[in-house]
Amino acid sequence: MQLELKDLYDGFRDAKTIKAYKKIIEEDAKKLNRTINIMEVCGGHTHTIMKYGIPQLLPSNIKFIHGPGCPVCIMPKERIDHAYILSMQDDVILVTLGDMIKVPGSNGSLQDARSKGADVRFVYSPMDCLKIAKENPTKKIIFFAIGFETTTPMTAALLDIVIKQEIKNIFFHINHVTVPEVMRELIDSRDEHVDSYNHNIDAFLGPSHVSVISGSKIYEEFPKNYKKPVVVAGFEPVDVMQAISMIVKQFCEDRCELEIEYKRLVTYEGNIKAQELINKYFQKVCLFKWRGLGNIKDSGLKLKAEYSKYDAEVIYKEILPIEEIEDHKLCICSDILRGMASPTDCTIFGTACKPNKPVGSCMVSSEGACAAYYKYGNLLK
Amino acid sequence: MKTVTLAHGNGGAENQELISKVFYKAFKNEILTKSEDAAVIEDGNLAFTTDSFTVSPLFFNGADIGKLSICGTCNDLAMMGAKPKYLTCSVIIEEGFEIKSLEKIVKSMKNELEINGAIIVSGDTKVVPKGSVDKIFINTTGIGQILQKGISSNLISSEDIIIVSRDIGCHGATIFAAREGMDMNSDLKSDCASLYPQIKALIEAGIKITALRDATRGGVSAVLNEWANQSDICIEVQEDKIPISDEVKGICELLGFEPMSLANEGTFVMAIKKEEALKALEVLQKFENSNNACIIGEVTQQYPKKVVLNSAWGTKRFLELPTGELLPRIC
Ligand code: SF4
Ligand code: SF4
């Protein structure tokens, strides 16, 4: 990795710029005679919003509601159990990304598996699997792949290398999910029992890293078919403030559009090469279960049938359970992920449920809404 | 708490829970519960402390486990205003360990002892079968003579302001970069250093220090939280005043860490009366490894027992104790 580390944040935390956007938003918000609820889809944004205290800068009629968060947060227990079981096989090294090892399944988390002797490793890049596979020729390396559109190309690229170099001991358990499907679900979903899943979403903040790969085009349907503006935004405080000002402007000017705030890297088309690689190896699964949200149509990916000899779900079919598992009764993640409730509405927030002992998905990943409120939120108005 | 996890060694919330629920519960006494860097004994004349060192990799940019094992214990003594004098040294070595590496480690220890003017007066060596320890563990225990009495984390008041001795997080970031095999385009280097020379200079300049602590595991965040708690005060930190190098900021961005929670091995936090602050900075800035010492915050009563971070754009948030297995085992 060769990079100028400064490039990662420089300029995007400038106090003057942030204050200038605060003024613009305040002025524009006065022209509105209503409250606007902006949903950030990704936990990365939730984290930025809470860490930098953005709600403290906004007028009272501009509100955030937090969305599904992240591929870590929304991983259902069933899938975590798969990872747990696989990791417990004698000849297996289970490899996954960071926070994933903390998520509790029904037998415990991968961290627990590790303390019981399983070989669980976390990596920053799927490519690290190549080194692990080389150093452990007698072991089966199973990459438990997670992530939105952002990380999918990396998994595909790893598979590409595995095939081309005829590496025999790397396998995949695929849990990649896609963003537009869950956004649609949030708008469309109804709960017949409570009759209350009439969403509150007025506009979306789209995660920039997803669109670097998929382009902004994946959000086109939301302004067009659902009348919800979308602004694709970066993760720095300046990015978020600018994106909010763009959304407020749209409402003031009675526009409803898809806009890109994060022009540094996002284009309408996205990274075509990466998209081709994904399409080569992956296909949609018809139903993928999201923790807290249930089964969502076409929202997950799996390996195409012709690559099934690399698919751990196929190879270990016999030992991987398929029954559905209920989430904790007191946990209201499902309402939070839908933007219907705030973490502080949960009766066990900060007491029985804390980041080091998470009960539900939103407290697990450091970027889940409950975790962000726990860590940064207690000074909020 | 059923089993000990790596999180229990993080210097943060779980670590404190383990200490208070298991060790303090059994060993409780007046000296121990003061919870200072070193115990103050013999009518306030001597400081006494111990620490064990386990680090991976053993050699890293800026230091090695040998240097660390002397700095760590001597710094704990210095943080009570004491001059490090006598140390013991026990090592547990895994069979198969190279003598050459051992010699290198011991040489670093010698160098660092000289800087502190301290000597090793007793020791112990154990060799254990392969796999029983990770290469080498070193324990050092030290006694120092207190030069300035009354330095304590329990006595900070609204008359004090908070100084940090240099840019933070270098040690933690270096270890991460080394462990993750990151090939950084940078001069990232551990801050590992003996702090006694600076403390001696402060005391000789006649400066009265309220509290001192080196920000090791748990980082500056842990120190400030402990102080706020022990002295029942609110510490308000100006976020843009905290010195952090570009390299450390970058690594934190990359890995999602907070620089304030990263470990340091040669950085201390000081609480001192407002009127003495400038004089203290003048003394510190003469030293190479504290030439960017600066004031980062003040003591108020706004939210007792809490640390508040004020951003440059006018927002506030609490800075909590680090939790979870965020930081890998460092020392
Ligand atoms: S871990 Fe964080 S960045 Fe990654 S998907 Fe989850 S919320 Fe988003
Ligand atoms: S606080 Fe915990 S239990 Fe409650 S909604 Fe959040 S994650 Fe679920």
UniProtKB/TrEMBL annotation, chain A:
Pfam families: HypD. GO terms for molecular function: 4 iron, 4 sulfur cluster binding; carbon monoxide binding; iron ion binding. Keywords: Iron, Metal-binding. GO terms for biological process: protein maturation. PANTHER family: HYDROGENASE MATURATION FACTOR HYPD, HYDROGENASE PROTEIN ASSEMBLY PROTEIN HYPD. Belongs to the HypD family. This is Hydrogenase formation protein HypD. The lineage of its organism: Bacteria, Pseudomonadati, Campylobacterota, Epsilonproteobacteria, Campylobacterales.
Automatic annotation (TrEMBL), chain B:
GO terms for biological process: protein maturation. CDD domains: HypE. Residues 36-145 form the PurM-like N-terminal domain. It comes from the Bacteria. InterPro entries: HypE, PurM-like_C_dom, PurM-like_C_sf, PurM-like_N, PurM-like_N_sf. Residues 159-303 form the PurM-like C-terminal domain. Pfam families: AIRS, AIRS_C. SUPFAM superfamilies: PurM C-terminal domain-like (SSF56042), PurM N-terminal domain-like (SSF55326). Belongs to the HypE family. This is Hydrogenase expression/formation protein HypE. It comes from Malaciobacter mytili LMG 24559. The gene is hypE.
